[in-house]
Each structure stands twice: as structure tokens, then as C-alpha cells.
Write a structure and sequence with these properties.
- The protein has a 7-stranded mixed sheet with strand order 12-15-16-20-19-18-17, sandwiched between helices.
- The chain has helices at about 5-15, 25-30, 35-45, 65-75, 75-85, 95-100, 105-115, 140-150, 160-170, 190-200, 210-215, 245-255, 270-275, 305-320, 335, 345-355, 395-410, 455, 470-480, 495-500; strands spanning about 1-5, 20-25, 50-65, 90, 120-125, 130, 155, 175-190, 200-205, 205, 225, 260, 270, 340, 360-370, 380-390, 415-420, 425-435, 440-450, 465-470.
- It is built from 20 helices and 20 strands.
- By secondary structure, the protein is of the alpha+beta class.
- Bound molecules: phenylalanine (PHE).
């Protein structure tokens, strides 16, 4: 005799009572076990080869609105027939449409079926319809209509062959709604049947080894449930940090490890700190509306001390004492006062430097910036930039390269190249590109350089400043192998769950 735990036994006898084969949900119901328990038992029975699970494609049929109408009021040919019989067996086509209460466009269909079912004949020249003497019992199509009206919905395969072909006819007459579904059917195997015949002994299984069982020594007697450690369990999604925030945290940690301090600055910034202090001329294309968001209200913000502003102004106009010729145009204070959403975090670092001129300074910022660009797979309107600066006696461009190389390597990016580049506020300027082995591609990540004297001198900064900055989302994209930057902010839970944590 085979031994089975109680739950498995309940499920097995439920299947047996249902004739040895039944859909899963019926078995669950019959067994009177909780859904999950019954399902687990079915899987155990399957493992023991007592049952097998089959997948069946089901065609579900039900009446559509027209079908329901015909099911309750009769098919149009039936109504024509009834009208004819009441009125002596012969009628003109025009009279029929009045008496049978049918829509005009249905009459030809009704007459077509009347003839096809041999319930009547039509004399086209006289325009008369005559009832024939054939039997007019309910046809299979009408029986099926009545049945479906009562049942609401049924599976095609559960119908008798005649009704199945009637369903074909009703389908062609567009009276049915049809849906496909896959259903799991559990079936007793031959082995299962044999075991049931031989008899089954129900055993109580113990799922937990309690201290009492151990102390009393009863663990020797009871039957312990076998666990199949290879069975996939339910997936548990623990709360977790959004991938973007994870990278932000990691980047901040790296900066901290390298001895940097975090600074923050305003999102709504004056053009002065975003552009002018960085020696970006007032007619620079990047300032235009299509790149920069200007505030309508309040329009203007506060500038630093008048002396600072006038030194910046003079530097733009003719270079002031910096040795430069400047940009050779008339600098306007109104333009500098305009409030904008900062377009880069360099606005934040230069603001900080102007107020903290004592060396050394090693600060960073990871924060939001805004650019009025068209959103697409590689650009967002609101995004984050990573920015860092080092200001100290005698630091050089080589230190900058070394610092960035270390920064990237801590992020797991070891192949880095530096290319000459241009920014209005740095000289020399460079662009760093990193190699992403998974994508087999080089990506530009950060702009960098040493602040020009036109930037540092008007603000009274006396030592070299090494600066670099770049988009954070781009970095995340290459790290995660994302094709579309917008994915990061789509709040797609599935994606957030699948994305591995940042190393
Ligand atoms: N601010 C530049 C940008 O937005 C990057 C940069 C920062 C370049 C610092 C040089 C120095 O792309």
C-alpha cells in the first residue's frame, strides 16, 4: 500500500471523484483545500507520477447582442415562418417585413435562410412567399441559441457534434463571441489508477521539527515532510532603492572615499553664476531659450558684490587684468541677473569657490540640472550631473587626469581615454571617454579642465582649479546597458525589480 500525506490524498481522491480528469480549478474546489495548498499537492502528485498535467486550448463561445436578441425573439427566418403560418401560408415580401417586425435589411437574410431550410419558397415574379409542408422543428442552431441564452458561456468541445457544427453556422452568421483560453487539466496516470486500486494509507506528516519532537524522541516515529529544494518558490520582491538613487549613493561614497566634501547649490540660479562667472559670453548660443529655461517670474535674481560683478564685466569686455582680450562686447548686468534653471552643476562649484577662496578645496556635487531639449532616447529635460573640483597650490592637469582615472576605476570603469576638447571656462580642456566591455564601445562621460584665469582672477581665486563634470544618467545607461534613457524615470516596476544592484 502506498503512503500519502493527507493533503495529497485529498487532492488525489478529488481527481478520482471527478472521473480521473478535470481542470485544475475544479480540483481545487472539490478538494476543499486552500488554492496554494491544493496546487502544491498537485505538483507533488505529478512528481510522483500519479497524475499528469495537460494543457488544453479551449474555445469559449457566448452570444453577442444580436445573438441574444435572436435567442429570445427567434431567428428572423423563424419569425417569418410564424407570421406566414398565422396569415394563411402566403404573403407578399413587403407585407412580411411589416408583420414580422423585422428590420428591412434583415428580410433578405431571413428569406435566404427560409429557403435554405426548406421552410418556404419564394416566387420572385409575383413577389410572394409560400410556406412549404416540411417539418419545422427547432433546428440545432435554434437549440444552441436557447442553450447559450441560459448558460451565458460554454466551451466548444463540451458540445455534442451536432451543436458544434451549429456553432460553426452561428459563428458565420456573426451571432457569437469567441475567445481562446489555455486550461490546465490534471489527469490520473495509469500508475495513479493502479495505486488507488491497491489502496492508499494516509500518513500524517510533520512539516516542522519542534523542540518537543526532539526532546521526546518522537522525531524517530513521525514522518517528516520531504522538501524538494529544487522547486521554485514564490518570488519575494523586497523593497529596494531605485537604480538611479543607487548610483547616486555609490558616486557620493566614491567622492567621500577620495576626500571630497559634498556641496549643494540652488536649482534656480542667476545667469551670472551659470554663465557669466564662467566666462561664457552673453551672446553664447547655449544661453538661448532653446537650451536654457528662463524664469518669467521672478525674472531677476541677486548678484554678488558690485566689485566682483564689475571685474567679471570687465573681463568679458576687454580681459581686465587677466592678460586676455576678453570677448570684446558690451556686457549687460540685466542679462546676468536673469533667473534660470541651472543648466550645469558648474554653476554650483563656481559659486562655492567665489565664497571659499582659501586652499585647499576638494568638493563635489551630484544634483539636478535642466535643459530645454527635445526628449528622446538619449536626452532628458531634467537630469543629474556629477561635478567635482580641486583647488590647491600647484595642482596641475596631470592631477586632474589621475583623479578622474581613480574615480572611474572605483566605478568599475578601467579603460579611460582623455581627448582634447573645448569649454569657454577651462584651458586646457578635455573630454574623458570610457570603454564599456559589455557594449564594446567607448562613451564620452565627463568634460574637464583647468579653470581659465578669466574665471578665477575676477573672483579672487589665486590657485589653480581642476574641474570636471558630466551627466549621471548617461553613466547609469552605460553601466546598465540601457538603450533608452527615459527608462530610468518610467516607473516601470518590472524593470526596477529586474535591474541588478549597483556594484
Ligand atoms: N559643465 C560641463 C558640461 O555641462 C562639464 C564641465 C565641467 C567641463 C567642468 C569642464 C569643467 O558638460
Amino acid at each position: 500500500m502506498m503512503e500519502l500525506p493527507a493533503n495529497e490524498h485529498k487532492v488525489l481522491s478529488a481527481i478520482e471523484k471527478l472521473g480521473g480528469k478535470a481542470p485544475l480549478d475544479q480540483i481545487v474546489q472539490k478538494s476543499r483545500l486552500p488554492q496554494a495548498t491544493a496546487m502544491r499537492s498537485v505538483l507533488t502528485l505529478q512528481k510522483r507520477k500519479l497524475v499528469e498535467i495537460l494543457e488544453e486550448r479551449l474555445t469559449l463561445i457566448r452570444l453577442n447582442d444580436e445573438g441574444k436578441n435572436y435567442a429570445s425573439n427567434g431567428l428572423p427566418e423563424r419569425r417569418v415562418l410564424d407570421t406566414l403560418r398565422k396569415k394563411g401560408g402566403e404573403m407578399s415580401v413587403s407585407m412580411i417585413s411589416k408583420r414580422a417586425g423585422l428590420r428591412r435589411d434583415v428580410i433578405p437574410i431571413a428569406l435566404g435562410w427560409l429557403r435554405r431550410k426548406k421552410w418556404g419558397s419564394i416566387n420572385n415574379t409575383k413577389g410572394l412567399v409560400t410556406v412549404s409542408m416540411n417539418e419545422r422543428l427547432l433546428g440545432n442552431d435554434e437549440r444552441l441559441l436557447k442553450f447559450l441564452l441560459g448558460e451565458c458561456q460554454t466551451t466548444l468541445s463540451s458540445l455534442s457534434p451536432e451543436l458544434q457544427s451549429a456553432a460553426e453556422v452561428l459563428k458565420k452568421r456573426k451571432l457569437l463571441e469567441i475567445a481562446e483560453r489555455t486550461e490546465r487539466i490534471v489527469q490520473l496516470t495509469e500508475h495513479g489508477w493502479r495505486r488507488i486500486e491497491e489502496g492508499i494509507e494516509v500518513v500524517q506528516e510533520v512539516t516542522q521539527l519542534t523542540p518537543e519532537l526532539i526532546i521526546t524522541g518522537d522525531w524517530r516515529k513521525v514522518k517528516l515532510t520531504r522538501f524538494d529544494v529544487t522547486t521554485p518558490g514564490p518570488i519575494v520582491y523586497a523593497a529596494r532603492v531605485h537604480p538611479v538613487q543607487q548610483v547616486i549613493q555609490r558616486v557620493k561614497e566614491i567622492f567621500a572615499e577620495m576626500g571630497f566634501t559634498e556641496i549643494r547649490g540652488p536649482i534656480v540660479e542667476t545667469a551670472f553664476w551659470n554663465f557669466d562667472a564662467l566666462f561664457q559670453p552673453q551672446d553664447h548660443p547655449a544661453r538661448e531659450m532653446h537650451d536654457t529655461f528662463y524664469l518669467r517670474y521672478p525674472r531677476a535674481g541677486r548678484l554678488p558684490s558690485r566689485s566682483t560683478v564689475s571685474r567679471v564685466a570687465e573681463t568679458h569686455q576687454d580681459g581686465w587684468r587677466t592678460g586676455s582680450r576678453g570677448w570684446q562686447y558690451l556686457w549687460r548686468v540685466d542679462e546676468a541677473k536673469r533667473l534660470i534653471l541651472r543648466t550645469h552643476t558648474t554653476a554650483t562649484t563656481i559659486r562655492y569657490l567665489a565664497e571659499n577662496r582659501e586652499p585647499p578645496a576638494k568638493v563635489f556635487s551630484v544634483d539636478r540640472v535642466y535643459r530645454n531639449e527635445k526628449m528622446d532616447y538619449k536626452s532628458l529635460v531634467e537630469f543629474h550631473q556629477i561635478e567635482g573640483i580641486i583647488m590647491d597650490r600647484g595642482v596641475t592637469f596631470r592631477d586632474l587626469i589621475g583623479t578622474l582615472t581613480e574615480f572611474y576605476s572605483k566605478l568599475g570603469l578601467r579603460k579611460v581615454k582623455f581627448w582634447p576638447s573645448y569649454f569657454p571656462y577651462t584651458e586646457p580642456s578635455a573630454q574623458s571617454t570610457v570603454y564599456i566591455p559589455e557594449l564594446k564601445k567607448w562613451f564620452e562621460l565627463c568634460g574637464m579642465g583647468v579653470f581659465r584665469p578669466e574665471v578665477t582672477e575676477p573672483l579672487g581665486i589665486e590657485h589653480p582649479v581642476l574641474a570636471w563634470g558630466g551627466g549621471l544618467e548617461r553613466l547609469i545607461m552605460v553601466k546598465l546597458g540601457l538603450e533608452d534613457i527615459r527608462f530610468l524615470y518610467r516607473n516601470d516596476l518590472g524593470w526596477i525589480r529586474r535591474t541588478p544592484p549597483c556594484q
